[in-house]
Amino acid sequence: MARKLDPNRLEDLAQAGFRAFAEKGFRRTQMLDVARELGVSAGSLYNYVASKEALFLLVLQRQNQDEPLALPEELPLSAPSEDDFLVEIRKALRRRVKMAALAEAVEAPCPADCADEFEGVVRSIYQDLSRGRGVLILLERSAADWPALSAQYGGSTSRYLKRLTSYLGTRADAGKLRVGPSVHASARLIAETCAWFAMRRPLAHRSGIDDETAEATVVDTLCRAFLPVEPARKNPGPKRNDARRNKHV
């Protein structure tokens, strides 16, 4: 193919494709939707990607890197095999969503004071979800439409929740964290709170909450909810009898 294709158009295509998949998921997104947003004919998109599956892979790869896309040697990009697609998903999740602090906390002995550890775990979860926002939204919105994607993404989410539940359970048993009637439900509460503010809030229209405020609010609120409250010292004040006696002096 002649090299007259615009590399900026490939980047524009990846960004427009992300917006479409993030809003509608894989099944409901049409190539015509993306073409309309770009102001081009649907047929011109096939100079860059051979199918909607190829476009989805292009979008996934773009969300897994920080730099604009370079024009590949061969175009249009072909649809990936299922195995290749799963490799790309695993690669994206490993790079963007490490959950390292949670993994370390699960293996570490319970500290005497859990406040710093718990705050570090929550902040790390939040920042991982924020960093992996594009990849995660893309997979989350399309998982129901694509069985192979659903299995891979669902398995990753299940392992993360299982690890978080284990962490909360051990610290609650040691009296270092307080959880509700269900440890699993408490883990889900933390996961969903972080996910909405870190991942979904930026896509919400007019949320009115900036990134720094969102993170600080989530960390502060969850720490207040799960860390035990130290009993406040009571100020005994004057004795009642003394107060009455003094009144009559």
Mean pLDDT across the residues is: 88
What is the CATH architecture term of the largest domain?
Orthogonal Bundle
Measure the end-to-end span: 105 Å
Percentage beta strand: under 5%
Radius of gyration: 25 Å
SS element count, helices: 12
- Computed structural class: mainly alpha
Question: What's the count of strands?
Answer: 0
- Classified in CATH, the superfamily of the largest domain is Tetracycline Repressor, domain 2
CATH fold field value of the largest domain = Tetracycline Repressor, domain 2
Shape descriptor reads: elongated
Helical residue percent?
Answer: 55-70%
Level-1 CATH class name of the largest domain: Mainly Alpha
Could you name the key traits of this structure?
249 residues; mainly alpha; Tetracycline Repressor, domain 2; 66% helix
Give a description of the structure.
Helix content is 66%, strand content 0%. By secondary structure, it is mainly alpha-helical. It folds into two domains: 7-80, Tetracycline Repressor, domain 2 (Orthogonal Bundle); 85-226, Tetracycline Repressor, domain 2, CATH 1.10.357.10. It is elongated. Residues 236-249 have low confidence and may be disordered.
Topology:
Blueprint: H1 7-28, H2 31-38, H3 42-45, H4 52-63, H5 82-96, H6 100-107, H7 115-131, H8 133-142, H9 147-173, H10 183-200, H11 211-226, H12 240-247
Helix pairs in contact: 1-2, 1-4, 1-8, 4-5, 5-9, 6-7, 6-9, 7-10, 7-11, 9-10, 10-11
Concise structural overview:
The chain has 249 residues and is mostly helical. It has helices spanning 7-28, 31-38, 42-45, 52-63, 82-96, 100-107, 115-131, 133-142, 147-173, 183-200, 211-226, 240-247. The chain folds into two domains: 7-80, Tetracycline Repressor, domain 2 (Orthogonal Bundle); 85-226, Tetracycline Repressor, domain 2.
